[in-house]
Structure formats: structure tokens, C-alpha cells
Amino acid sequence: MNYPSTRAEAVVDTLHGVKVADPYRWLEDEKSPEVQAWMKAQDAFTREYLSRFPGREALRQRFTELFYVESMSAPAVRGNRYFYVRTHKDKEKAVLYWREGEKGEERVLLDPNTWSADGTVSLGLWAPSWDGRKLAFSRKPNAADEAILHVLDVDSGKWSEVDVIEGAKYASPSWTPDNESFYYAWLPTDPSIPVAERPGYTELRLHRLGTDPRSDPLVHPRTGDPKTFLNGGVSRDGKYLFVYVTRGWNENDVWWKRVGEKDFRLLVKGEGAKYSVDVWEDGFYVLTDEGAPLQRVFKVSPERPERSAWKELVPEDPSASLQGVNIVGGHLALEYLKDATTRVRVVTLDGKPVRDVALPGVGAASNLYGLEDRDEAWFVFSSFSTPPQVYKTSVSTGHVELWARVELPIQPERYTVEQAFFRSKDGTRVPLFLVHRKDLKKDGNNPVLLYGYGGFNVSLLPSFRSSIYPWLDAGGVYAVANLRGGGEYGKEWHDSGRLHRKQNVFDDFHAAAEFLIREGYTRPGKLAISGGSNGGLLVGAAMTQRPELYGAVVCQVPLLDMVRYHLFGSGKTWIPEYGSAENPEDFQVLYAYSPYHHVRPGVRYPALLMMGSDHDDRVDPLHARKFVAAVQNTGQEAPTLLRIEANAGHGGADQVAKAIESSVDLYGFLFGVLGVRADIIASAASATWGR
Questions:
Q1: CA distance 54 to 490
Q2: Helix-helix angle 503-518:534-545, to 10 degrees
Q3: Is the pLDDT of residue 691 over 60?
Q4: How many CB atoms lie within 10 A of CB 103?
Q5: pLDDT in tens, 324-383
Q6: Among residues of the chain, what percentage have pLDDT more than 70?
Q7: How far is residue 616's CA from residue 352's CA, in Å, rounded to a whole number?
């Protein structure tokens, strides 16, 4: 492998008495001309190398069929107006539409396909006012997190020239009932503020339409703590204002006041617990894991908000994890996970059971979407073999009907979905989903792609993923491991995979791989692993801890230098999840698994495809650069490649054409390094797609 050359420097820090080498620190400076040249050379080398893999044209044709589709989201109803997003077979980006009434004429409201010649400006969040006549929305250059907030008039489609708010990275507009103002989180764009310190500068502000945003009044000041997030909003009736100060993904404080009062008062201080509040008819409905790792719901009176007066409405279910609560149609809609599959229950506002929502199968469903005082509600359902379908339901009767569906060129009857359980290193029982063709033979010779995440209380559900179908059609197995660190089994499951217990996540992943090999699905040379962001840390650690167990690694927008991660991007907000190397005890744990620091010469590592984005303003791309440099300079034979997506943020580019090219490169790499022949890919295409 004749890689572009990468120099190493003798950079060594002494941290808590330990000498820590960092030979590629110079690659942290993305603005350096030398680093820019290095990135261009690496990306060009990778794209030329990937272009050699067989079967790419068949993959491109198949992804084109799977990705350019007609689909529709569940609607947001405001007044008598319905707002929803649609994708089209002939457009790169989804389009926001609205209707007057459910059956009214469809009208384009926002089409981001027209915003820039190169398609690099994206639509972020959008929030209609309660009467449906105004819309606040964000535009995101390069699909990054940074955003600019705008307001338009729905009837005319005209954008306001006054209501333009910069610093909307964390903004989530909360409209007042008079439809003339909204509360939002504002972040200064002052370049003198270090990027890693910016979260602590977030303020809650109030914007009144038609006024200069620079004069927006301060509602709640910044915390000054870069390890916190601050956000807030007003109740639908406009009576109550709430502010959340969140530390990590496990605890937050909730402050509130009646609108018009001067000072906020503390509702609850989260000491190892998190809380979210919905308000309806002068009742606060509080979802929390306080004293209940699988979560429960309380009702609180604003007249007696002290903790001792809270009334438990929905007790903790010992067999299922409560993921969320919505107030719809005068009821509470409760979203549960049981062994990583969804259940949705409806109870009264007093907590009395009404029914389970009739889901169309076993899979992943959203909670009910709707308004507190309207009977109609919607939910989205999908499974590994069922594309997302939107259903409409009546909260009062339970009637369910299909509202919008996606038609895709797949044959679900060809595939089977299994859920298995395996034991991790310490004996913990961990679930694993497996998807493959029904004619699979367990001869230990199948290519397997194992995906995981394992962090931040994120649950991996058995939801549809169209990109896996060329893999399945060519005889591959797709596996998803529900690792500790996620939220599948509530707070304790999350806690057992974070901070000083992070190694449990990697042990779970290794055990999943060993299960797949032991059960005859595959062998190490045919086993690929994939993960992004925190999941990129996962596969980086798997690769450096057990290189003999894996044949290929796809690592996307990752964290990999766990000694210095907190100094860049949004890193300080993740300290409650990982810890900080500035703390001696945390340092020992972080340094023990930090993938960048465990790349060793002479080790035979699996083939690596690193996939980054040039405008990732969440996880700094320095992690990918430094790790690739370290692995390349071990001199191993297997390819170590760095692919950089241009004009893309942490979630990649949002253009279909770019998603197709990215997927062709990803799966072409996997098929190539795992030895899947081009004729197998082509014959699978012909048999499955009728060509």
C-alpha cells in the first residue's frame, strides 16, 4: 500500500505520571496547509483504491432504486393545517409541504433543492405556529449542526427579512399561543469563544416577530459550564415556562415559572436522575427514572410543586423500559421497549390503562404524534423487512388505518429476522438481531456485518434500513447488537456501559462476534464491523483490542483519541458519559481503551475504511485523521483508507446522490476485502430485481 506519506513527531505528554505519546498531533490543525494537503491526498488515494473493487456498477444501480423513493412523514397539525415532509424519486432532498385540511390541496412550503446550486444547504428543524400561519425553520450550511433560524408566512410563502437569527445550533423554537413570539436557545457566534467552551454560553431568549433578533430579551442566562446543555419552552396555553439544565444524558435540573413572574423556581434537581415535563390543563406530567431505572410518570400540581406532593400515575414496568410520553387526545401515549422492540400503550390522564396500540407487527414504532385536544394521532412503524409506514389512529376508539406507505423494490418474503441472546464476558445477557436470506447456510463462511453503538442511552431498534439489501441479496448477514451503554433496558443498562464501566460495551461487542462465529454464521475473515460517532469509538476499540476477531472495519465520524477528545468540538458535553483525562481516575480508564493510543507496530489489523466529513462540527475529524495515520504507519498489508465527504456534517451529506456514492464505496469495500465475487453481486442483482 503506497499511502501518502505521514510524518510522526516525538510529542509526549506526561499525564498523572504516565508518558503519553501523540506522534500525529500535528494533524489536529485542520487549517494548516500541510494538513489540508494531507487530507486531499488521502481522500484521492482512497477513492482511486475503492474504484477498483468489483460489482460497483451493480451496487450503484441497486442503491439508486432503493434510495430515490416516494415517501411521506407523519403530519404535524396546527389549526386546520397539516405539515409534512415528502421525498421524491427525482429530487435529492426532502420537501416540506402543507395542506389546508387533511384532504386539501398539497402546496410546497420549503424546497431545499432550490437553495444552493451545489445542494450543500440543508433544511434543519421546522416548527409551525399554533394557528399554522407562521413557520420557524433552520437552514444548515454543509448539513452541519450550526444553523440560521428563519421565519416565513405560510399563506404567501414569503420569508421574513427581519426574523433571521444566527447562533441557532441548539435552537428549538417554542411558540407562544398568540402565534407572535417564540422562545429559543441562542448560542453566540463570537469566534473568540473556544469551540469546546461554547455550550456553556447558551442562553434562552424570546423573539417577537418583526423585531430585530439582536434585541431579543434574555429569559434565562447562560450556565457558564461547557459540560451542560440549556433549553426550554412554554406550555401550549402560554401559562408556564420551563428551563432544563442538562448534564450529560443521565441527569438534569428543571426550573419553571408562571409567564409574567420575574424569577424561575426549581421544580427538581436531578441528582443522578433525568426528568421531562409535559403540561396540560394545569397539570405537569413528569417522566423520570428517579427511583425507577425503567422510568415512571408523575403528575404535579403547580399549586403544590414540592417533591413530596408528586402523585405517581404510571408505575415502573419491571418488564419494559418506558422511552417517552406524549399527551394526545386527552390521554397519555406511552412508548415502551421490551427486548428492544416497541410497544405503545394508551392510558387516561389519571394513569388508568385503556389499550395497547395495535401495531402491524414486531418492530420499531414511534410514539403517537398529535395534539392534546384532538382525537386523531399518527405513528410510524417499520421493521428490518418493512419500510416505514405511517398509520393514523383514533385515541378514543383505537381504530388504526394506513395513512402513507413507502413502496420499495424488495421482496420481504425472501428474508428472515431473528432475535438471539448471548452472554457477555461477565455473564450479562445481551440481545442481538440477525437479518439474512431464508436460504442461508450456517457453514461458517457467510459475510457478516455487525453493527453497534453502545452509549448515550441510545436504543438500537429493529427498524428498516434500505442500504443493507444489496448485502443481504449477495448472501450477507446483517447483525445489530443491543450493547450496554444504550437505553434498551433503561438507566441501569446505560450506566453499566459508561464512565469507568465503558469496557463492558467493548466486551459485549466481542462476545457478539464470538457468538456469530460459534453459531456457524461466519468466521473472523468474513466478519465486518461498523459504527459511527460513539459507535466509531466502539469499532476502533474492537479493532485495537481484538484485531484477530475481525476481517474488516468501517469506522464513521468517530471519537478515537479519548485522552484529548474533551478539548475539541462538543467534547466537554460528553464528559458525563466518558469522563475526562484531567481527572486521574478517569484518565486511567480512558487511556486503557483509547483506540488511538493502542495502535501497535507489528500487529495484523483488519482492513479499515474510515469515513469522515469535512464540516463535522460535533465530533472533530482530527480523530479520524490521527488514527488512520497511526494504523497506516504500522506497515500492515490490509488497506487502511480515509474517505472524506465534502460539504457534509456529522450526519453526512443529505443529498441522495452522495448517499448512493457513499454506500457504493462502503459496501464495495466490504465485498472486496471479504472476498465476495463480482459475479455473486451481479447474479443477486439479476435474481432479486428482475434484470
A1: 44
A2: 60
A3: no
A4: 8
A5: 999 999 999 999 999 999 999 999 999 999 999 999 999 999 999 999 999 999 999 999
A6: 99
A7: 46
Please check the confidence at residue 251 and state whether its pLDDT lies above 90: yes
The closest of 651, 656, 689 to 88, measured between CA atoms, is 656
Question: For residues 662 and 611, is the Cβ–Cβ distance under 8 A?
Answer: yes
Backbone φ and ψ of 670, nearest 5°: -65, -45
Interatomic CA distance for residues 384 and 437, integer angstroms: 12
Task: Tell me whether residue 5 is exposed, middle or buried, using C-beta atoms within 10 angstroms of its C-beta: 0 to 12, 13 to 18, 19 or more.
Answer: exposed
Exposed e or buried b per residue across 131-162, where buried means at least 16 C-beta atoms within 10 angstroms of its C-beta: ebebbbbbbbbbbbbbbbbbbbebeeeeeeee
| Amino acid type, 359 | L
DSSP letters for 254-267: EEEEEBTBSS-EEE
Of 435, 511, 530, which Cα lies nearest the Cα of 476? 435
Compute the distance between CA of residue 602 and CA of residue 623 in angstroms, rounded to an integer: 22
pTM of this structure = 0.96
Closest CA to 508 of 461, 547, 546: 546
Give the pLDDT confidence of 419-446 residue by residue, as tens digits. Answer: 999 999 999 999 999 999 999 999 999 9
Active site residues: 533, 650
Contact present, 647 and 118 (Cβ < 8 Å): yes
Phi/psi at 16 (5° precision): 50, 40
- How many whole angstroms separate alpha carbon 423 and alpha carbon 508? 8
